[in-house]
Amino acid sequence: MESRKCLECGEPVKGRIDKKFCSDYCRNSYNNRINKDSKNLIRNINNRLRKNYKILTELNKSGKTKVSRSRLYDFGFDFQFFTSIYTTKTGNTYYYVYDQGYLALENETFLLIKRE
After folding, report:
1. Angle at CA 79, nearest 5°, toward 35 and 40?
2. Any residues with CB less than 8 A from the CB of 95 and at least 6 apart, and which?
3. Residue 92 falls within a domain, yes or no?
4. Is residue 58 part of a domain?
5. Which of 23, 29, 78, 100 would be a feasible disulfide site paired with 56, CB 3.0-4.6 Å?
6. pLDDT at 37
7. What is the secondary structure of 1-54 as a DSSP string?
8. Range of the domain at 69
């Protein structure tokens, strides 16, 4: 009978014929190492979205607020990260981070809104 080796540490694997790892620790270590790059990308994007959401929520306590671009920048808002876009029949484009949205107005001003 051929001896199977753990994909992570090389130790002999005992048990089911399709088992690939000697322990949960080795299985988790292997999968974390394999998926590290894509997980870092996703984690970084989610962190940016979370930060943008927090900024919009803090600045828009009433559900509808006007704020300047520079104020958003001062808080660290990143305009490249949002979750959806909604264009009205009149052609206005709202950018949303989950249920918090913003619309560009004149003079570097933004209308912050909360979608109900």
Report:
1. 10
2. 79, 82, 84, 85, 101, 102, 103
3. yes
4. yes
5. 100
6. 76
7. -PPPB-TTT--B--SSTT---SSHHHHHHHHHHHTHHHHHHHHHHHHHHHHHHH
8. 37-114
82 SS3 class? coil
How many angstroms separate the CA atoms of 13 and 17, rounded?
9
Distance CA 72, CA 105 (A): 14
Tens digits of per-residue pLDDT, 28-70?
A: 999 988 888 778 888 899 999 999 999 999 999 998 999 999 9
Q: Are strands 64-68 and 93-97 parallel, antiparallel or unpaired?
A: unpaired
Report the number of distinct structural domains present in the chain: 1
Q: Does a structural domain hold residue 76?
A: yes
Type of residue found at 49: L
Cα(100)–Cα(75) distance, rounded to whole angstroms? 16
